[in-house]
Structure prediction request, 353 residues.
Amino acid sequence: VSGFDAAPAMEWLCSNNVSKNAGHSTYTCMLSEANGGGVVADLVVSVMDTPHIAGFEANSGGMFSRCGSSFYVTTGSASKTHDLAHIRSAIAEGGFDCDISDESENFAILSVQGRHSRAIVEGMTGHELSDGTMPFSTHKVMSACGGAHVVRVARLTFVGELGYELHVEAHAAVDVYSSLFATASQLGLPLSNAGCKAISSLALEKGYRHWHGDLRPTDNPFMTNLGFTCKLGTDTPFLGRVALEARRAEPDQGLTRRLACFTVDKSVSLHGFEPVFRDGSCCGVLREAGFGFTVDASIGYGMVERTDGGPANLDYLRAGTYAIETAARGMIPAALHTLPLFDPNGDRVKGSY
Prediction:
């Protein structure tokens, strides 16, 4: 997303503050005014050059200060078409002067995650990636494969580990992929392929959200513990803010339901859409579900609905006794968890093992 109005357009589209210094990447939601500020997308926005909009000073026309910044937006492949349509529609409706270029077919993303990721990516690029040089949620362009290719390295994770995403032109992807394994071999470090099911399992253990899976347009950020992505502490307007502030003004943020994490014995398979019971009464269904190999348990996330008019706050969740009805095993007891099952303090994301 680039052009004259790129910065104000992205601030309007995104719930989080994305107009930061060049080289910064921000996880954000995009909301609507429907469903109390329902989440219509969650993605990462990276600043490609410095946005000259400090403080969003109004110009004589009462609009945000103009600038020529550009933003690099990455989202999950399953929601790419939906997210692109939303961005184009919202920018057009807002009257912003922006160019939107879909670069999906031109780039590949290789994600290197785990305790050895820093050493392997440093070895392949020849660049230092320490916390002081490249902190979390930043990105840099650097050479790779002995200078044969250029990659954009972003320190990001969707699996809860120290890790880096390598954004590379599609024609160079195989070379960079091969170079990663060659570098790991030279360093004597283990490196293995992992697929989307591994990513999903690790994300379940960390409590990371999947949009359209356990995060939907009918949910506002408060229901899914994503309130931290909303710049409500600023005066910056954004799409969905009015609805979200109205919900926030209600007691307990007006929450009648809340996303909760459950585990059951590892001998029981969870697939999603199983009914969830609280104190013997059905209170919702599971959304995302799967097996957590690190925690050795089956995991499911479900929206716990409260129908008696009270708030679905943490006290209410913790006071209940839960069970999940499965096709194969019938009703089974389930344990509620209000913190991430794995590494709740995020030490591994910081590189502490």
Remarks:
- The first strand starts at residue 25 and ends at 31.
- The CA atoms of residues 283 and 305 lie 5 Å apart.
